[in-house]
Backbone:
């Protein structure tokens, strides 16, 4: 079949790589893609949010499955757009409806959903500029550190964690009165700080059945030892060693099952991925966020461990036929190290020539922010490449990734050398 994949990052290159391993994939198109996705499929120059163009493309190329990588098209309602168009309604699409995507698109909606379904999460209250005074007072009743979250999508930047009350109050004012994060911070969720270690849990669902995909740990800060500014993610390890069977059972019983039941009860059309951001507090899992897509760079560590034909799985989810489908996971560990442009996540230069991509090796080199210029692969984003390796344990896998990185270079290249160090 012909498949259309929307997105352009490392996550999408990992999807493209795995989809094209399937004998069922005749032709893969990636919109808009990057220089890496062009190696395994054909890039289609259109934005992942340009619904009319996507429609035209699906019809002219006889697309039989659409896979949505990033959250933006989902939050903008691409799944509803397909369902409501008689020419598109029969094309299976992997992703939740717009209502389902609100689990990521609005932190308040997500918190209310968790409350309704008794899913463990931090205590919270939400405020707008109309009740700013109450928000300022609410902060006084909390213990530091203070967690302030812009309600809407803010490209991963909308969460502030502050140690000091005056600073937290000033930030709340800026978010609500000056729209520090644009429309996303017209509403702010203030929540209790949870102290513990984070992990990401991924679920594929058709809204009735679900399959739990491998867990992963993401490294969000730019600096070693988890210091400095937040980024999209600097590396990942899968599986997470501390997420043993007993802990996974807690996650399934307390979080995954109530989430799927909640989706069913509220009649939310949801045929796609749920990415649950968790914190392990003591021995108990708490949800810090839902995302309605796979994580990046977690996908680059998770997908290479899935041995089942990915096209079969995606199609089953999109058609509501996940029940009975099998899922086989590679028991080895996978690690991903992200190479970024100097200066990222602040200003950085683009257009730097990347060398060393041709070298053969066991590692997978996924492109994130790359493009082709006069026949050369050049940098075009903050996160440039994601290097994934598999081995019997994550330390060996990391060694392989770091060895592969030695052979790659571009001006200003930076990466964290401490991925996985906190895992023992
Ligand atoms: P989010 O965008 O919701 O993933 O939040 C960004 C980061 O802020 C998370 O990855 C956590 O490290 C941190 N965070 C969010 N909520 C909390 C919380 N309630 N307690 C502690 N840390 C949090
Ligand atoms: N790596 C975190 C995310 O994709 O949101």
Residues:
């Amino acid at each position: 079949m012909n498949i259309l994949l929307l997105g352009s990052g490392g996550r999408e290159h990992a999807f493209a790589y795995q989809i094209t391993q399937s004998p069922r994939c005749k032709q893969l198109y990636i919109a808009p893609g990057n220089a890496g996705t062009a190696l395994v499929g054909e890039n289609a120059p259109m934005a992942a949010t340009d619904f009319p163009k996507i429609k035209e493309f699906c019809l002219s190329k006889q697309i039989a499955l659409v896979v949505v990588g990033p959250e933006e098209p989902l939050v903008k309602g691409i799944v509803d757009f397909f369902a409501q168009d008689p020419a598109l309604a029969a094309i299976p699409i992997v992703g939740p409806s717009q209502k389902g995507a609100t689990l990521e698109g609005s932190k308040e909606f997500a918190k209310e959903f968790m409350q309704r379904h008794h899913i463990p999460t931090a205590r919270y209250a939400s405020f707008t500029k109309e009740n700013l005074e109450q928000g300022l007072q609410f902060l006084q009743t909390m213990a530091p550190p203070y967690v302030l979250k812009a309600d809407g999508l803010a490209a991963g930047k909308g969460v502030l964690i502050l140690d000091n009350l005056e600073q937290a109050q000033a930030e709340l004012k800026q978010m609500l009165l000056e729209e520090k994060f644009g429309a996303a911070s017209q509403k702010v969720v203030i929540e209790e700080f949870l102290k513990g270690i984070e992990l990401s849990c991924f679920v594929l669902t058709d809204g009735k059945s679900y399959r739990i995909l491998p867990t992963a740990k993401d490294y969000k800060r730019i600096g070693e030892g988890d210091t400095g500014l937040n980024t999209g993610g600097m590396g990942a390890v899968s599986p997470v060693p501390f997420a043993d069977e007993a802990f996974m059972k807690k996650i399934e019983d307390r979080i995954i099952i109530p989430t799927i039941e909640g989706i069913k009860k509220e009649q939310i059309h949801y045929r796609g991925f749920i990415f649950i951001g968790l914190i392990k507090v003591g021995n108990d899992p708490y949800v810090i966020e839902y995302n309605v897509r796979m994580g990046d760079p977690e996908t680059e560590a998770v997908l290479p461990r899935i041995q089942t034909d990915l096209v079969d799985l995606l199609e089953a989810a999109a058609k509501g036929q996940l029940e009975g489908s099998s899922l086989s996971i590679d028991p080895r560990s996978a690690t991903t190290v992200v190479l970024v442009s100097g200066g990222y996540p602040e200003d950085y230069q683009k257009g730097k020539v990347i060398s060393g991509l041709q070298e053969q090796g066991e590692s997978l080199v996924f492109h994130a922010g790359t493009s082709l210029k006069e026949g050369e692969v050049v940098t075009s984003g903050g996160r440039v490449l994601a290097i994934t390796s598999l081995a019997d344990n994550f330390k060996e896998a990391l060694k392989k990734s770091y060895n592969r990185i030695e052979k790659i270079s571009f001006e200003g290249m930076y990466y964290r050398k401490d991925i996985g160090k906190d895992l023992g």
Summary: The chain has a mean pLDDT of 96. The CA atoms of residues 103 and 119 lie 13 Å apart. The two ends are 44 Å apart (CA to CA).
